[in-house]
Amino acid sequence: MSAMTMTEKILARASGKGSVAPGENVWANVDVLMTHDVCGPGTFGVFKKEFGPDAKVWDKEKLVLIPDHYIFTQDAMANRNVDVLRQFAKEQDIKYFYDVGTEKYKGVCHIALPEEGHTRPGEVLLGTDSHTCTAGAFGEFATGIGNTDAGFVLGTGKLWLKVPPTMRFVFHGNLPPYLMAKDLILAVIGDIGVDGATYRAMEFDGDGVYALNIEERMTLCNMAIEAGGKNGIIAADQVTLDYVNKRNAGSKPYNVVKTDPGAKFVFEKVYDVTKMEPVIAKPHSPDNKATVTQVKGTKLDRAYIGSCTGGKLTDFRAAAELLNGKSVKIDTFVVPATTEVARGLDSEKIGGKSLRDIFLASGAKIGEASCAACLGGPSDTFGRLNAPISCISTTNRNFPGRMGHKEAQVFLASPLTVAASALAGTIADCRDLV
Ligand code: SF4
After folding, report:
1. Which of 18, 104, 238, 396: CA 20 to 30 A from 403?
2. Total-model pTM
3. Do 98 and 207 lie in a common domain?
């Protein structure tokens, strides 16, 4: 049997084959399917049309429903979408439904999935959201799919997938205190472009990756899709297993999968993290790379710290370190990805002060756990760019209109760079503060 990458091994196992090769099509059995308030209604519509109005989902324990996108809004259509999730969850008796307004409410799906124990090494996780690739940080094959495919999965538990070839990105060295995973992935996307990994697996490896905590690894995999990647993936190590074993929903058995020595890659690109610099993606594309040094001093109107990419506790800890005892010069919005992260804003302390108190004392506003303005949303969405202003953000996309107004300018950066810039009112270099 020829040597395989992690992605190939997972898809071989999921399709009941001894081995698979890039380009091969397989019927993969799905371990978890996730959908949310934006795509859930469309997915259920496809499912009912194709499998009948009274059809039951293939496995109700493998479906996870997470309202997270357009949640805290008066918009009637957005509210209706959540109602459709409620109705479907009730009708199908879905256990893993994290409904808003209940104690189970979580917030952003890609952070909620691991927190609630739905991510496990070696599995196939599909979701009706392009950033489903985030879960590759747990050593699994995770990718976003459309409503039609998801409707088919609901009925059959399978999907016809093409095995992607793998590109390997190796990071060496200890991350300097002024860099975060966001800088690494923005550098990669800037180097290969937004189509540089189209329908390929992006495998992240090297001591620089394994030195990162699990949340930072999630940031790396989260933005694989910004390079067009089919999936991002990092082999599970003890850090991964410690996290997964504490949370594993249903205590399901799983298999850790590693890339075989001699496995073939499209290419391997090696980075020395000690030589890298804070990076920014300028408007209007995640691959419009500049070093902070090149754009330092650019005037800003707003700072935004949140989303599945930049709204985890690690992100807020980093930002709070810089904001502690200081005042922001521009409107600054803080949005925890999940309710668990929101609780962390109270329990995590720096010098005896909670992160929440540090943010509020700095003049930042804190919103409720959700996607909030990452995807713009209805006009009453917290932090939405309702005017053609300039914003620096820890989110993952900056295409025109992504955070609201079509003429708004969005700069993507790490939480450290966003916090430093919030204090300056212009793009600032966090190395001056760290
Ligand atoms: S936080 Fe942003 S990128 Fe993440 S799932 Fe929500 S809208 Fe998508």
Report:
1. 104
2. 0.98
3. yes
